[in-house]
Design goal:
Layout (H helix, E strand, L loop, with lengths): L2 H18 L1 H35 L3 H50 L1
Helix pairs in contact: 1-2, 1-3, 2-3
Length: 110
């Protein structure tokens, strides 16, 4: 992970761990990833279904509406993919934060 990404999320992850504890922070971040992943999957399926419907539609008004719906849903998908990337970065940062914390405690005991 790029250090700038880690630094960007560090304070948030630190506060999350201090507030919730390690296990609950882990659960929360995993649930966030799962929720967004499911939304991405559902949105991709929706786009696929609309594209399939376009192939069988002959009404020009209906086609136009479907094209706008596909465009809107594609924009939503792009937003969700950005959110998924951020959630993934946050979880990777969380793992790195825990590793750094572990190293700190191991080195302080030497």
């Amino acid at each position: 992970m790029d250090i700038s990404v880690y630094e960007y999320h560090y304070k948030e992850i630190k506060n999350l761990v201090n507030t919730l504890g390690v296990d609950e922070a882990d659960d929360l971040l995993k649930k966030e990833l799962s929720h967004i992943s499911k939304a991405v999957m559902h949105t991709r399926e929706k786009i696929s279904n609309m594209k399939h419907t376009i192939n069988s539609t002959t009404n020009s008004d209906e086609l136009l509406h479907l094209k706008y719906d596909i465009e809107d849903t594609t924009n939503l998908l792009n937003t969700l993919l950005g959110n998924l990337k951020t959630a993934d970065e946050r979880y990777l940062c969380f793992e790195k934060y825990l590793a750094n914390l572990q190293n700190f405690w191991e080195n302080s005991l030497d």
